[in-house]
Design brief:
2,3-Dihydroxybiphenyl 1,2-Dioxygenase, domain 1; four-stranded mixed beta sheet; Four Helix Bundle (Hemerythrin (Met), subunit A); 2 domains; 18% strand; elongated; alpha+beta; 297 residues; 9 helices
């Protein structure tokens, strides 16, 4: 599953929540608070659980572990206000997400004090599934109150028929990988830096003739780079920004090699990350960055 598909699920989730809240607004406050002997008592209690859970998970995505579900939502209006804030937070979170981020583990502490870790993609799927389950309870409660039920099945979302609905569908194309091209001037110096020092592997080399210029791919840990002697491919002095995990281990490994031309350090960056910058013999800079736990200040 990629980021576009996750964003689609959350567009559906927003649509379905809006349908439920629209139906809930059609009954009186007294009806919403009536105890129906269900999991969360009343219709209002179920809506509080839906919104509270999405808020808790948003905070966990941000690296926090709240100790309990928030319940201080006395009115439907206060729930809608918080839901809007949560949805805006979800959009902002997805805007900074890459497909590679979906596979990284997210660790949090639950309400019992237990520590759990799951791939982020599974947690993102869980949140939508959780809200879907409890929307089903809310629909049943609405019918118990004599109100008109609503349909929030996924196919109804597709069939809503508006231009906005069509624009929410996953784009037909999928970008699979971005590979920077860096200009080099000397193959031996390039291999000394990228292979011997940084620990990259040479995947392949290509020449149009028996002699230079050369074009080759090197890779390590999911990062691929194209190194080219062709003058028209790139300009020296480029910068590649690489988000990664395990930067301290990486730093320890390369500094132990005593590369004579560079001794990179680790620095705290303003974007709430630890950064290590290296410059190759041709003036190209690789800036490795690992996000720190918690929300950026």
């Amino acid at each position: 599953m990629n980021r576009h598909e996750i964003e689609f699920l959350y567009r559906y989730n927003r649509w379905a929540n809006a349908k439920i809240f629209e139906a809930a607004a059609a009954v009186t406050p007294e009806q919403r608070e009536k105890d129906l002997s269900t999991s969360f008592g009343s219709l209002h209690g179920t809506l509080v659980h839906i919104v509270g859970a999405e808020l808790i998970w948003l905070e966990r995505w941000r690296g926090k572990s709240p100790p309990a579900l928030p319940k201080d939502f006395p009115t439907l209006e206060s729930l809608l206000e918080t839901l809007a804030e949560v949805q805006e937070g979800q959009r902002a979170f997805f805007a900074g997400l890459s497909d590679a981020d979906l596979d990284r583990k997210l660790t949090y502490v639950n309400f019992k004090g237990e520590t759990w870790s799951y791939p982020l993609v599974h947690i993102l799927q869980h949140v939508v599934n959780h809200s879907t389950y409890h929307r089903g309870q809310a629909i049943s409660q609405l019918r118990q109150l004599g109100a008109k039920g609503v349909s929030t099945d996924l196919l109804y979302y597709f069939d809503d028929g508006t231009a906005a609905r069509d624009s929410n569908r996953t784009p037909p194309e999928r970008m699979l990988e971005t590979i920077p091209i860096l200009r080099i001037f000397d193959v031996d110096k390039a291999k000394e830096f990228y292979v011997s020092f940084l620990g990259f592997h040479v995947d392949w080399e290509h020449r149009f003739e028996d002699k230079p210029p050369i074009y080759m791919q090197v890779s390590r840990g999911g990062l691929s780079l194209h190194l080219s002697e062709h003058h028209s491919d790139a300009c020296p002095g480029s910068t590649v920004f690489v988000r990664m995990e395990g930067i301290e281990d990486f730093h320890r490994e390369i500094t132990a090699k005593n590369y004579p031309y560079l001794r990179p350090g680790l620095e705290r960056a303003p974007w709430h990350a630890v950064v290590m910058s290296v410059v190759d013999p041709f003036g190209n800079r690789l800036r490795f960055s690992e996000d720190l736990p918690g929300k950026a200040g």
